[in-house]
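Suppose a colleague, Dr. K., hands you the sequence of a protein chain of 681 amino acids and asks what its three-dimensional shape might be. Before reaching for any lab equipment, you can write down a predicted structure in token form. Begin with the sequence itself:
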Amino acid sequence: MKAKKTPAKKAPTKNDTSVSGEAAPFPSDIKPMLATLVNEPVEAEGWLYEVKWDGFRALGYIHGDVVEIRSRNNKSFNEKFYPVYNALQQWGKDIVVDGEIVVLDKKGVPDFSGLQNWRSEADGQLAYYLFDILWLGGKDLMNVPLEERREILRSVTPTEGLIKLSENFEATGSEFFALADKMGLEGIMAKKADSVYVPDARSKDWLKIKTEKHQELIIGGYTKNEGTPKPFSALLLGWFIGNEFHHVTPVGTGFTVKLQKEILEKLKPLEISQCPFKHVPAYNKASRFRPNPPKAEVVWVRPEMVCEISYREMTKDGSIRHPSFRGLREDKNATEVVREMPAPVTEIVNDENKLVKKKVLATPVEQERKTLLNPNEETQVKNVGGHDMKFTNLSKVYWPDDNVTKRDMINYYYQVAPYMLPYLKDRPQTLNRFPHGIKGETFYQKDVKGKAPEWIKTFPYHSYTDGRDKEFLVCTDEASLLYIASLGCIEINPWSSRTEKPDNPDWCIIDLDPDKNTFEQVMEAACVTKQILDAIEVTAYPKTSGSTGLHIYIPFGAKYSYEDSKEFGRKLAKLIHGQLPDFTSIERKVADRQGKMYIDFLQNRPQATVAGPYSLRPKQGATVSMPLHWDEIKLGLTIKSFTIFNAVDRLKEQGDIFTGVLADGIDLEKALQKLESLFGG
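The predicted structure, expressed as tokens, is then:
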């Protein structure tokens, strides 16, 4: 399969009379031609095939000094996608083109979520793929047949840079669709070669066909929910990594009752008593959408039978979203099952019995959130979220022993903002400011009334100390996070509640705060905390404090009051202390603790704060408050395991593992009942 190319022609010049089309004035406000969705590729002569780009449709207008990029709804993209605007300015043609603006991932595949989050060149590599030309050098080309328009477009499209030609491919519709599917593309376009361009019309001369992602997996067991009439509720599926069988996903849709019975008959001879997965799947685990799942029984089977599923998305860690059963693959051995990844930018295909390499997509590019601030200018103005923000004193050293500057700190918060914001959004902040770094004077600031920019949201409160009405700063988005950092706030300290429910925290915190303890003792206390919570079937999420201790978060979902949270924390603290009396304390006064670790439940009071997830800390090493997997709390973990130097790489690898904290929350009444039943309250 190869891109269809025509012999090179001399590029048309301004007002070139050799170009087909009728003389016409420069157009404006064209609404693009639209395609009709169909369920399978067209197999017929006279059709051209190209990639369906997963981006924003955009018309580019160039006429003398006038340059515009417009959306399909005629909104300007000039500022939003300024690199494309700049590239059009440099093109030097009188032209109107139709195409798609995309952000490309490392394999050159469009990433729509990356495009939605794009704000600057640090956020990803833009490309503007052109697939049509509507006007050139004084001539209207919309009534010229598509195939001829494509030849004209090819002759004028730049050979380098982010403006690219969306190639047609010499292949049957089914062949090209299969390749698009394998490469993880959104789909393909089929267009009649002789079609004209009809603005603002959904035409059957242009068709779009979307792909669906598939994956083969091995059955390791099945569940049956209490009270269900179905033969089973879900298959538990996995794959081998080396010699270890890892659970990947349950699948509970895509079956008929008849098919389920047939599957059970085939699985019957494979039943075993022990779980075949390396880790037992949490098949009874609550989720955001099923906070009280039905009780399920499980039957394990030898991991020998292969099935195929369809799904919407596979995350970097292999988790699968919206899986659906497609069928058993009895023609496949379990040893043949591998994680299927999109093909690379080049695809090896069989062309007349010869293996040839054909370039299908753009050159792979690195897709990562790069630094916001350049390394040279001491003062920089950046547009963040539509706000022009001024960043100053960027070379000031904040961590002298580690040579980490204010610029480094702001760049860090810029890189981790997408991960941090769910835990900061709409929460009042206590500002802990270090204008001269961790060895300079520091001060806390709560009141920002009349001191913050107008676009910063605030939350009112009354100070009984001086009888004045004051305002907390509220973090709402990336811009407000970076504004907080620009004030010299090394650590970010959000409330546990949001402004819409200020009296109802989203989580309860157990803060393990050591004094003369070893970190091994801190980890032991965390493990005891987990044992107690496991016993009452409460899920919790740990993170390093970034200082000396550990924080354990229990989802509350804003369903209960701060008093409820504090009292639940108090009960847990007493139980933890009861099991570890030799080196823990629940005494509030420092003198009464006698050097023991404080199990702090009083962080669950209104306006109390701890450093948020992914926050930096004003400690030597530029440490980070990092979410953990429970199995990481073991010998070898230290406070300095996560710093400004490695935290971003961990997030790229692991993603945000703390999201369960924002779930609907525990059933507190049930948890308290179990606590009393098991531990006597």
